[in-house]
Amino acid sequence: LNVVVMGLGYIGLPTAAVIARTGAQVLGVDVTASVVETVNSGRVHIEEVDLDGLVSGVVSRGTLRAATEVAPADVFVIAVPTPFAADHQPDIGYVLQAATSIAAVLKAGDTIILESTSPVGTTEQVRDLLATLRPDLRVPGRGGSGEGADIAIAYCPERVLPGRILVELIDNDRVIGGITPRCARKALGFYRRFVRGACVTTTARAAEMTKLTENAFRDVNIAFANELSLVADRLGVDVWEVIRLANRHPRVNILSPGPGVGGHCIAVDPWFLVAAAPDSTPLIRTAREVNDGKTDHVIAQAAAMIDAMPGASVGCMGLAFKANIDDFRESPALRVASALAARFGERVRIVEPYADVLPKAFDGTGARLIDVDTAIETCDIMILLVDHDLFRSIPLQERQGKAVLDTRGIWPDQPPYSTVAMRPELRL
Ligand code: SAJ
């Protein structure tokens, strides 16, 4: 079996490597030449548990190679980004570009599977584009062609959690949406090669909406926790204790408040639903706003703390969008730390075990990167932004005498620091 994976990012590369491990011949295609070079030398350009060993293995066995140009194959998997524009409208340009290059090498019998998170209807748009570019091939489910199609087209969203990608690629259930039932069955046969979880078939549109629903569900639930944290702050109650206690109820399961929601999925995908049905999504939109607003609240809280201690040095602990990963995309921690650096300049130090240099957002601010031990020794104020294991290991004794803002609730023994008492304007 020859497989092409379009896009060698956080999803495409692990997917390509896992397929290559089954013995299939896999070509990973990426527009970035340096990524292609890195993969062909058996190395990886992203940090993900066990990925380096897997990629070096399949590259040295010759089942995975990378290129900037697509080649003929039996199955094409599209795993390119679907960002949104400034007005929150989804941009499927990369998907359509990938489909255009696939069209050039497509032949009867091939299967095309879209994995990128996409607005409902995108798979049909891919089908329509292929029909236009390749009038010689009969596309599925269009113009009365029924099931008598030459190619199969399906949507099968990835659902893996960064940090657990290689495990979840295999163990998670998959939702496989075909343009027609026959397309879904064709794609099912492909996933069965490497997925241990259940593979459930449906329509392409239902599969597209399912993916968006999963991430919107999580966003709404995190928004609930973040809203509770604002209320608890105002009432002088420890939100973490309240959530722990409420979660003892058999049907309550509240998620964790934090400095906001980051990453390229949960902070993005709900907007695809809002864009599709603006009048029917007040809850999903508000959840997005609550989670983004939580970041502004943390910035205000931290700034009040720093203002109250003139000359004190500030340690911002963490920049990643969540614990124990090197991914800073849409990171609320990065937003908080860079806003503080812009305002307080060289008083601000950053601790981030997953960064060798500070990201561009800190250019010209005077902030600098230090290690965790130096922060413990030299910072008077500690703003905990990411629940990295490294930070969990700092005992109360090493936090003694510091002003601490723990936005993740990883230090339950930390006496609360009330900025609200100090600055009444921070009240809701
Ligand atoms: N977060 C909280 N409180 C929580 C849980 C998360 O503040 O209780 C924050 C995190 O710190 C982070 C953000 O939310 O900033 C998102 O983190 P996450 O771990 O919830 O999710 P992602 O973005 O790493 O991965 C999600 C997953 N989706 C769901 O759990 C429904 C993953 O399964 C998807 O494959 C992935 O999005 C994706 O690619 O869509």
TrEMBL record:
Q: Which UniProt keywords apply?
A: NAD, Oxidoreductase
Originating gene: wecC
Is Glycoprotein tagged as a keyword? no
The residue ranges of the UDP-glucose/GDP-mannose dehydrogenase C-terminal domain are: 315-413
Q: Does the keyword NADP apply?
A: no
Q: Which InterPro entries match?
A: 6-PGluconate_DH-like_C_sf, NAD(P)-bd_dom_sf, UDP-Glc/GDP-Man, UDP-Glc/GDP-Man_DH_C, UDP-Glc/GDP-Man_DH_C_sf, UDP-Glc/GDP-Man_DH_dimer, UDP-Glc/GDP-Man_DH_N, UDP_ManNAc/GlcNAc_DH
Check the record and name the SUPFAM superfamilies matching this protein.
6-phosphogluconate dehydrogenase C-terminal domain-like, NAD(P)-binding Rossmann-fold domains, UDP-glucose/GDP-mannose dehydrogenase C-terminal domain
What is the name of this protein? UDP-N-acetyl-D-mannosamine dehydrogenase
**Which GO terms fall under molecular function for this chain's record?**
UDP-N-acetyl-D-mannosamine dehydrogenase activity
Record Gene3D superfamilies = NAD(P)-binding Rossmann-like Domain (3.40.50.720)
PANTHER family (UniProt xref): UDP-N-ACETYL-D-MANNOSAMINE DEHYDROGENASE
- Source organism (scientific name): Sphingomonas longa
What Pfam families is this protein classified in?
UDPG_MGDP_dh, UDPG_MGDP_dh_C, UDPG_MGDP_dh_N
Q: What is its EC number?
A: 1.1.1.336
Q: Family membership, please give it.
A: Belongs to the UDP-glucose/GDP-mannose dehydrogenase family.
